Prior knowledge:
Elements: E1 2-6, H1 11-23, E2 28-33, H2 45-48, E3 53-57, H3 63-73, E4 77-80, H4 87-92, H5 95-114, E5 119-125, H6 152-171, E6 175-180, E7 183-184, H7 193-202, E8 207-210, E9 216-218, E10 220-221, H8 222-235, E11 240-244, E12 249-251, H9 252-263, E13 270-273, H10 288-294, H11 302-315, H12 317-324, H13 328-336, E14 340-343, E15 346-349, H14 350-356
Parallel strand pairs: 1-2, 1-4, 2-3, 4-5, 5-6, 6-11, 7-10, 8-13
Antiparallel strand pairs: 9-12, 14-15
The structure holds nicotinamide-adenine-dinucleotide and thymidine-5'-diphosphate.
Amino acid sequence: MKILVTGGAGFIGSNFIYYMLEKYPSYKIICLDSLTYAGNISTLDEAMKNNNFKFIKGDITDRQLVFKLFAQEKLDVVVNFAAESHVDRSIKNPEIFLKTNILGTQVLMDASIKYGIKRYHQVSTDEVYGDLPLDRTDLFFTENTPICTSSPYSASKAAADLLALSYYKTFKLPVTISRCSNNYGPYQFPEKFIPLIIIRALNNKSLPVYGEGKNVRDWLYVEEHCEAIDLIIHGGKAGEVYNVGGHNEKTNLEVVETIIKELGKSKKLITFVSDRPGHDLRYAIDPTKIKNELGWEPKIRFDDGIKMTIQWYLDNKEWWTNIVNGEYMNYYEAMYGHREVITKGIKNTMIEEVASGRYK
Ligand code: NAD
Ligand code: TYD
């Protein structure tokens, strides 16, 4: 079996590559990744030592390159992780999200039709369903929940999903889609909430919590997402969508407090900042379909998964130090510098706070 993994130098894609290389020693894995700011080639150092693994630097929107790769490699399966994935960036600059997430998916599926791919798997997100109210904990996203997106990121992912389903119906491309909740674990880029909080807490820096920290996410340890995708590409039914989620709902404030407690840091680091526009209130997945059809269910509780994740960031300082010392500093300044800091009802911008010495 030969699998093309796109976006494999990013967070979930790299975890998937390691999972598959270990579980299936006879499979060949090819990674196609354009190495955007979120792609890190050093993440794949260990994989590079495996003869069954090959890395190709390239963009999924580059039709010529993608078709040449498919012609050369005789692939069986495509798993598309490649995407622009950060909601806050999509609010600042939507265009690249539409290009990569929608047009890139189209290019990969066109090539998959031409070269007779046996399974095209689209890695999607629960964010395509929009959000659930905070006071209705009885409600969950099922595969039949209507698409109702909030951010340019989720809208681009939803567009790609609909395109994928249309390719199944119109061209008979054997497509499957997984819609997963928030992942956490090793190799997550520190613009995302959990690694951002861990790294800033380790450095005794303020911990930015949007709004009042009441928004809820359903956290899944990344390896369990990899396991679900493995089951779907081997046993899932073409044309079907599978929801994947952790039954691990936490408010953002609970997440920060857990991390602070594990690291023995002060709660005073918590800094409430102005909210994300269009901030989804609650995500919660009903994974009954994948449980009944493929026997998948989440096993790792958040309290255990977060300990493993914190330990990974403690053990792999070099990996993230290289990131946070580079271009990332400019990113942090651009994204957070002008956010209001809300302390006891008084609003300041972070820039004013820094100038006054109250905020690092
Ligand atoms: P990530 O941002 O960490 O990694 C994305 C990878 O894609 C990077 O290596 C990047 O270089 C690569 N890439 C970006 N544009 C590309 C292009 N045009 N051509 C080739 N490569 C390109 O993202 P992630 O968190 O690992 O997410 C992977 C996928 O899973 C995404 O499709 C995302 O929508 C989906 N997803 C993520 C989560 C989550 O919690 N992180 C949850 C559900 C679904
Ligand atoms: P994020 O990791 O960006 O994932 P998503 O928005 O796709 O769910 O954010 C997770 C939650 O944490 C989300 O409710 C926004 C919140 N958040 C903060 O409160 N502060 C931050 O600095 C970041 C990046 C996110």
